[in-house]
Structures are given as structure tokens and as C-alpha cells.
Amino acid sequence: MARRWTSQDVAALAGVSVATVSYVMNGRMIDRIPAPTREKVLSAARQLDYSPNRAAQSLRRQKTEQICLVVDSIGVPVIDQLARDLHAAADDIGYGLITIVVGSDERGEKATRLLHQRIADGAVIAPSNVFRFREESLGDLARGGLPLVVMNNTVRPAGFDVVRAPEREACGEAMDHLLSSGRRRVAFLGHHEEVTNPTTRAESARMGAYLWALARHGIDADESLIVEGADERVAGYRAATELLQRPDRPEAIFAASARSAISAIWAARDAGLAIPDDVAVVGCGNLPETEITRPRLSTVGPPTTEDFTEVSRLLFDRLLAKERLPEREITNPWAFVPRGST
Amino acid sequence: MARRWTSQDVAALAGVSVATVSYVMNGRMIDRIPAPTREKVLSAARQLDYSPNRAAQSLRRQKTEQICLVVDSIGVPVIDQLARDLHAAADDIGYGLITIVVGSDERGEKATRLLHQRIADGAVIAPSNVFRFREESLGDLARGGLPLVVMNNTVRPAGFDVVRAPEREACGEAMDHLLSSGRRRVAFLGHHEEVTNPTTRAESARMGAYLWALARHGIDADESLIVEGADERVAGYRAATELLQRPDRPEAIFAASARSAISAIWAARDAGLAIPDDVAVVGCGNLPETEITRPRLSTVGPPTTEDFTEVSRLLFDRLLAKERLPEREITNPWAFVPRGST
DNA sequence: CTGTTAGCGCATTCAT
DNA sequence: ATGAATGCGCTAACAG
């Protein structure tokens, strides 16, 4: 690894002190440093292809000018949107965005550790079906002075802000809609952890709402209609196809993601079934694609495509605040949005 | 922002020196430090909720233990796969992955600057339709000692590794296939920059292959069949729908992405058209979804879903090498893969 | 076995 | 207007 030039080198080349180099590079003392000196420094810097070392800057300035997004997997559309919005907000104030992907619980530990190590000046924890940060860890982080926004329906604010979405209620509405029409066999296309892991199953809003609605309507849950790991397009298609081939095929499909719901629509159409007459389909979350399926997909989720500028604001308010801010809690509007597929 | 505890504090609390704290925290001198001392340190660290400051570590160790992925937008499936593979590889050796999104050219400058500042120990530049890193910048970066892998078909290796995909040839094959069957009206669903910007249009392998094939077969390009900004699902669907409603509708659609090709299939089916008899469809890139469309989507791309472990290896070989490595160049196999839609 | 110490590269205060 | 000196928090050589 070639030794990179440092401010020392630039100073030497320009015939000034490192202090002057620092001033010039940061545009400080702008009107006290004469243009010729300034030029000498700039030219030396250019000549050496110098840029200040980030780690040294962070150490000295006591901030990284990075924010961190913690997600549980890559390629989920709604998380992409979150990343985009955060990125844009960060960019506006010259901050960068770094993403940590937490595919498993042990990786959750790792993410906590990195946050602890002040790898970023603030963080957003995205909703997840996989990992459960211990509330205690989050509290520790916040108490340590890390601006933190947690998107989660159950965690209690403890020095950090919380963003909620009333998923359970909204899903319940959708299920009621499905069941009130007399349909009794409703399949569930869920995420892996949501369905398989007993703890997370109990905590899952979508799965919970599904089971609870069934119970409310006096229907015994049929485990053979509950599919795990069917949250993305291919698995969703395969699961739906299989379900719809059965002689006792379901009259409705409730999918825990919009992607698998869209796949379910294809599967139904490919099977020659009419939607919603032969089989109704509902998904969770609002993707733009919802508007281009035939029929248009009914969803439970926000009324329009999700937008996370509010979440960004929570974080950056905290980040830029001088003193510690009170905890805030915001709720994203979720509701059952009937379109054509129910 | 609460002052975080430092190794000094831990040392004081444990009644040892900072060196010992460092040794214990890093598991060094593991067999020279007696268990009781070790315990004291660990307990003090736990008590103060201490973790070593990352910036200080990086500065001292002269490495960040992060790698950086530079992409031009979020939410492109193939890039997600790349991110996943890199992430996994990084994880294996205790490295983190940070992603920089370069939505525009000025942001490209910023990315270069960050890389220069040694925000990471190595970087992968993903293929892009948007930004053009100046070869010179990349060379500078590499000359500065940054392990770098660039995924690009035109750039020359200059201290970094290059990953290519023979897109132009493969696309040409697909176009030949389409045109040889007697079809003359072939639409193109392209990315924004690919179609609109004269420079990038000229450089685009997919657009280029399309135009070139047309010329080869003695067909005048019809600009009204060329759609820009139709690289994602919704735009692709809308564009295809519009195209297929025309009285002189195209006999084939060549899409520069797999997602828009899949949308084109839906659009055709929704319009009651038979594929490939009424309209043939080809996309670029290999998504798993390709297997679940009806008919299955013919693509130009790698034979199986893309896998970037080779790319990861290039980077990590460089990263872990003691001395500077020779430049390597690998070529991902791209070809026309006819399935059902042509 | 453990403590002392010298930087890593930079920003900043205080002199001049 | 600019330079010298200090220290951010940590690691690693070197002492002892």
C-alpha cells in the first residue's frame, strides 16, 4: 500500500505550515489567508493528489459525517426507498450513508458493536422480520449519545425516536374484508422467520393479524395454507401455484409482502383463475407496481408509495441539535386499501 | 453528545495500563496476560459499556476494515446480488461493506473524493449507465494504493482489475435472432441516459448493439420505437402497453433490463397478445424471475443467475496481498439465452 | 507479564 | 497572516 501524502507533505511542498494547509483545505480563515498563499497550497495539494485522511479527521473532529442504516436484507423495495430518502437527506448536509446488513442474530450483535464504535454519527434501524435488537442495546446506544431512530412497532422509546406503522390493525381490516365475503380458506404467504420461528411468529404483526382474524371469525387455522419463506417473487409464485393447484384451493391469499402478492396474481392468472372471484389477493406494503397489475392489487399499507422524509427528519434533527432532544414517536398511516384484487 | 469512555477510563477502572486494555480487547498476547487481569479489564469494559473508537483504530492501524461498493442507483436486482455477495465475502474476514450511491456526475466526484480519503480499504465500482468515472481518476486511486475492481467494458486496466461482460456481442446475437425470423419492427426499452444522452448513447453496449443490428439487417431505426427511462417495472409496463396499442405495433421488444422485459410480457398478455407469435420479448440480465414468466423470458445475459464471488475474490486478493498484484481482467459469460419469449 | 511512550494525520489554540 | 505545539483514542514497540 503506497504511502499517501499527508498535510505535512503538502505543507512542505507549498512552503507553509500544516496549519495553513488545514485552513486552506477547509476554507477557514478564508479572508485572512492571502490569495497567493492559498494558491500555493491548493496547487501543492493538487500536485500530490492529496486529500485529508478521513479517519484522522473523524478522530480530531469527533464526528464521522456518516449516518448508518441497519437493514435485515438487501433488495426489499420499501427498504430501498428508505435508503434512497435517507441518502438524499444525508447528501444535502454533506453526510454519507453506510448500510449494515443484518442477516442473522449474530450479525445483529456486530451491528450494535459497530454503532458503539462510532462508525457513524447517527443511525436508523429499519423494520425487520429477522433480528430483534434487544431494547437494552438500543437504549445503551442512545444513552451513549448516538442519535437513533428505530422503526418498530413494539419497542419503547428510550432516548431514541420510534417510527410505527399500525400494521396489525390494518391487516386485521383486510382479513375482515376477506372473511366477511364468506371466504373461509385464506392462505398466508409469509416471511421465513415470521412463520417458522415461534418467538418471531408470535411477535409478527402480519401473521398475528391473520391468525387472530381467523379466530375472530371462528375459523380454525389450517397450517397447510401457511407458507413460509414466500416473501419474494419467485418463492411467492411457486407457493401460490402450488396452493392453487390443490383441489381444496384457498379462496383468498393474504401475502405478507407486496412482491409475493403480485406473484400470486400471476400464479392465479396462469392457472386460469379469475381474481377476485375465484381467488382474492391482498399484499402488504405499497409498491408502484400495485397500479399495473390486473386487477390492481389491494394492499394493506400506506395510502401512497412510502416516503421516508419524516424519518430522515427525525434523525437529522437529533444529529444537528445542540442539546439532547426529547423522544419522539411518529406513526405512518397504514390502512387496508381495496383495489381490484379483493 | 455524551463523552464516550476511552481505553484510559477502562484502564483506570481496572487498575491497569492502556496497553493491557488494548491487548485484552484485541485478544493479543493472549497467553501472556493472566486470566485475572484479563477478567478485570473485561469487567471494567463491560461496566463502562466500552468499545474502542473506530476512527482511532483506523488511524493507528492504517486500515478501516471496510470495503466500498460504488453503484449508480439502489434497487437494481443485479446490483443487489453484487452487494450481497460482496457483503458475505467481507463478512468472512471481518470487514464491513459501505455503499456509495452515485446518482449523478457530480456525485461521482464525491465518491472519488471519499475513496481518496481512504474511507475504505478497497472498492468495487459497479457497472453504471449514469456516471462515467474518468479513467484518470480511477488510475489515481489505484496508484494511490487502493485495491480497486472496476466493472466496465471499455475502461483499460491501470493498476486495478477489470470485470467485463461481452454485452454488445450477446445483444447482437439476440437481435439477429429476432430479425432473422423476419421481424422488422423491434422496439427498444432503454435506460434514461442510454437513450437520451448522446455520449452515453454512443457508449451503451445495449443501445449500440440494437442500432447496429438494425443497420446490419438493412432496417432504418424508428425513433418512435425507442423508449427512454423504461428500465424499471412500472415504466416498462407503461411503455410496452403504449407501444402495443399502436396500429403499427412492434413485432418484438428488446428491453435493456430484465425487469422491463418482464413488464413487457405482462403488458402483452394484458393486451391479449400471444408471445412470441404476436410479439417477441427479450431482456438483458438474468433474474430468477425469468423462470416463472409465461412464457419464460428469453434473455441476453449470464447463463445462470449472476454470482459475483469471482469479483469479490479479485478485490480481496488485492486487499490481502502483501505486494502489489498484477492487473487482472475477467470476463463474465454473456450470451443470448433463448427461452420461451422469442 | 505489564507499563511507558511514540506516533497515526489532522484541526485548533495560542503565540508571534 | 502564519507557525509551533497539543491532543483526539488507539496500537505496538520497547523497557523493565
Automatic annotation (TrEMBL), chains A, B:
Residues 6-61 form the HTH lacI-type domain. It comes from the Bacteria. InterPro entries: HTH_LacI, LacI/GalR-like_sensor, Lambda_DNA-bd_dom_sf, Peripla_BP_I. GO terms for molecular function: DNA binding. Keywords: DNA-binding, Transcription, Transcription regulation. Pfam families: LacI, Peripla_BP_3. SMART domains: HTH_LACI. The keyword Disulfide bond does not apply. This is LacI family DNA-binding transcriptional regulator. It comes from Georgenia halophila.
